[in-house]
Amino acid sequence: MYYFLTSNPMNYQTKELNPANNFVEKVKSVLPTQVSALFVCSDPRNYAFTDNYARDFQLAFEAAGIGFESYSILDERIADKAAELVAQANLIFLAGGHVPTQNAFFRSIGLGQLLRTYDHIVIGSSAGSMNAAESVYAQPEEEGEAVSKDYQRFLNGLGLTEVSLIPHYQETKNQKLDGLRVFEDIAYPDSMGTSFYAISDGTYLYGDGDSETLYGQAYLIQDGKLSQLTSDNETYQFRK
Q1: What is the rounded CA–CA span in Å between residue 48 and residue 227?
Q2: What is the C-alpha separation between 106 and 27, in angstroms, rounded?
Q3: Which helix (H) or strand (E) holds 119?
Q4: Closest among 28, 36, 31, 32 to 89, alpha carbons compared
Q5: Helix, strand, coil tally for the chain in percent (to 5)
Q6: Contact yes or no for 133/162 (Cβ under 8 A)
Q7: Domains and CATH numbers, the chain
Q8: Which secondary structure element, helix H or strand E, spans residue 103, and what is its range?
Q9: Over the stretch 21-69, which tens digit does the pLDDT of each residue have?
């Protein structure tokens, strides 16, 4: 399997793929001649959001000169055909959105199990990239989540990687939620005994089954501290 776990693979204003850190060229290098794509949603019941998001994804690929032989959307409307759709696809896109909502949908359709024998390409965006991990850090993002005793910050994911990503760092590094700083007061304390990798848009984690490499600006959050790993056009390779 090849996977590209991104903060955001496209510019939603221009409807184009983000070319930073050689992303487009690297995706093209592993794509088959004929692409059968499957768009897996983040909110299984928000049909309008999913349809618009899926269309933007298709337009971005077409603008980069990549057409789809077939293109399907997987949400609640067709969840009973998940196994068939995954088996037919050679490119799977994991949408961005609300991490716990998407995580619950992935579990309901058994996506982790279906991907164990999948040997093609996965592209994740934001929440999709976070949920691709074995252990998902569901950083609170909606009002009330940061102070809720019931909100689960650690979830079981798809198991594609052991790297726990936090996307959109350039946008969220100074944000507050429920009166708390999302990094200094939330993510840093949650990193005690573990590690997260905060990435900016344009950065992605690439895996090919043998190795994993971060491309672009990335930060390590570990045991309550943050340190910069890489800048744009730099790489960091994980040891297996």
Answers
A1: 39
A2: 24
A3: none
A4: 36
A5: 30, 30, 40
A6: yes
A7: 2-238 (3.40.50.880)
A8: helix 99-108
A9: 999 999 999 999 999 999 999 999 999 999 999 999 999 999 999 999 9
